């Protein structure tokens, strides 16, 4: 299936690296709710498209011309040297993120809703989307996705602040998890579902955001790699009760793979919604 003319209205006017969001997906048509969760990005001679509805996920790329396709094939064959200062992210997920600082009223909202402080915002370079490359997604915050294996920023997770905005989150990265390292003295690694909870935890300990509740074999092997690399002595899996109920087999596999104790904690509320006092008390109880 290719992009139809209705979907492409206005997309041809995008600048390179710019995204048009809030479109209707040509495959699922937004489901029964007619949700406008389809986005198209113009980058280096092609259009990258993705439906952010969890039950759809339709995505792909279309070249604007045969010449662009040939140039892209030539470029993709180039292997970066070890001495290169920057390594280009996979072409289909490259993004020029927003650079705008967060306005004072939004800083206050983040503080009241998730207890995010200036430390969190500055430490992880959290930004606000008001204009520019994310057309259709203004009024959201851009959170960094950190590649657990390289420790480098590999993309963005865009989070809505207004509960009426759909979809709530949009992921622009090929990484299926994101690592937020805590102090160098951290002995525990906490696995959680979402980025904001991980960022909250990072002030005290290291945390891996699973970007969902799935704990498949690849993620379990990644956790084993991280435990060995950073010499963690304690592993905590903190998910809500429903997610843990569906992950019994995955948790058993994780315990077999990692050489350290695994605590499984059923959350009554997300860690991002804990007050600072509640969070430090929770950490005192579950981490060493």
Put the structure in a nutshell.
With 288 residues, the protein is an alpha/beta fold.
Question: What this model shows, in words?
Answer:
It is a single chain. By secondary structure, the protein is an alpha/beta fold. Helices cover 26% and strands 25% of the residues. A five-stranded mixed sheet has the order 4-3-2-1-6. Strands 10-12-11-13-14 form a five-stranded mixed sheet, sandwiched between helices. Strands 5-7-8-9 form a four-stranded antiparallel sheet, with no helix packed on it. Helix 5 runs parallel beside helix 7 (248-257). The radius of gyration is 20 Å and the shape is globular.
Content of β-strand: 15-25%
Structural class, judged by helices and strands?
alpha/beta
Mean pLDDT: 80
Characterize the biggest β-sheet. 5 strands, mixed
Helix tally equals 8
Give the overall shape: globular
Within the largest sheet, what's the order of strands?
4-3-2-1-6
Characteristics:
288 residues, alpha/beta, five-stranded mixed β-sheet
Give the SSE layout.
Blueprint: E1 19-23, E2 38-43, E3 46-51, E4 59-63, H1 66-76, H2 104-114, H3 118-123, E5 127-129, E6 134-135, E7 140-146, E8 153-160, E9 169-172, E10 178-180, E11 188-192, H4 195-201, E12 206-209, H5 217-230, E13 234-240, H6 241-245, H7 248-257, E14 262-267, H8 276-286
Parallel strand pairs: 1-6, 11-12, 11-13, 13-14
Antiparallel strand pairs: 1-2, 2-3, 3-4, 5-7, 7-8, 8-9, 10-12
Helix pairs in contact: 5-7
């Amino acid at each position: 299936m290719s992009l139809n003319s209705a979907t492409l209205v206005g997309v041809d006017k995008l600048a390179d690296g710019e995204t048009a969001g809030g479109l209707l997906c040509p495959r699922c048509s937004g489901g029964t709710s007619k949700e406008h969760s389809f986005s198209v990005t113009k980058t280096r001679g092609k259009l990258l498209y993705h439906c952010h509805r969890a039950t759809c996920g339709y995505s792909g790329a279309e070249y604007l011309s045969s010449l662009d396709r040939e140039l892209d094939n030539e470029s993709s064959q180039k292997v970066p040297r070890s001495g290169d200062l920057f390594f280009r992210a996979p072409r289909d997920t490259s993004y020029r993120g927003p650079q705008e600082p967060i306005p004072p009223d939004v800083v206050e909202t983040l503080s009241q809703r998730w207890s995010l402080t200036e430390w969190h915002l500055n430490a992880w370079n959290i930004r606000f989307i008001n204009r520019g490359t994310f057309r259709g997604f203004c009024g959201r915050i851009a959170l960094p996705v950190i590649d657990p294996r390289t420790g480098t920023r590999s993309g963005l997770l865009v989070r809505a602040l207004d509960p009426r905005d759909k979809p709530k989150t949009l992921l622009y990265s090929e990484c299926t998890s994101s690592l937020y390292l805590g102090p160098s003295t951290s002995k525990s690694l906490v696995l959680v579902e979402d980025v904001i909870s991980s960022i909250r935890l990072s002030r005290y300990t290291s945390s891996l955001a699973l970007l969902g509740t799935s704990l498949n074999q690849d993620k379990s092997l990644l956790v084993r790699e991280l435990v060995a690399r950073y010499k963690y002595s304690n592993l905590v899996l903190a998910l809500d009760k429903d997610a843990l109920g569906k992950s019994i087999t995955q948790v058993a596999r994780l315990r077999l793979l990692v050489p350290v104790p695994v605590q499984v904690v059923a959350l009554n509320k997300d860690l991002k919604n804990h007050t600072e006092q509640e969070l430090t008390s929770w950490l005192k109880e579950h981490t060493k």
